[in-house]
Amino acid sequence: MNEKNETMSDAFPDRLSTNPKSPYYNEELLQRDVGIRFKGAEKTNVEEYCISEGWVRVTAGNAKDRYGNPLTIKVHGPVEPYFRDKTES
């Protein structure tokens, strides 16, 4: 039963965000420890990604907007999401 659940949810959505206010937020998927490879390098500061459009939104240092949220920058390039627990096999 557990294998069936893993294979059904192994497909990544086109867009995913770590911000709970975003319509692209998916708590169940994020709990599985999603990693992002961007232009071949692993990124740990990704706030949101879009596979079809080829961009990631990353935090811009310690800068904050007027609401206290981190400022982000959209960077274009190839995006590869993966589950970190499966790459260690």
Summarize the structure in words.
This protein is an alpha+beta fold and 89 residues long. Helix content is 17%, strand content 43%. The protein is built from three helices and seven strands. The chain has helices at 2-8, 27-30, 84-87, and strands at 15-17, 34-38, 41-43, 46-50, 55-64, 70-76, 79-83. A four-stranded antiparallel beta sheet has the order 1-4-5-6, with no helix packed on it. A three-stranded antiparallel beta sheet has the order 3-2-7. It is globular and about 35 Å long.
General shape: globular
Whole-number mean pLDDT: 86
Q: Spans of 5+ residues with little confidence (pLDDT < 50)?
A: 1-8
Radius of gyration: 14 Å
Widest sheet: strand order? 1-4-5-6
Largest sheet: 4 strands, antiparallel
Residues in helix, %:
10-25%
β-strand percent reads: 35-45%
H/E element string?
A: HEHEEEEEEH
Summing up helix and strand content along with how strands pair, one would put the structural category as alpha+beta
Query: If helices are DSSP runs of H or I spanning 4 or more residues, what is the number of helices?
Result: 3
Number of strands: 7
Overview features:
3 helices; 4-stranded antiparallel sheet; single chain; 43% strand; 89 residues; alpha+beta; 7 strands
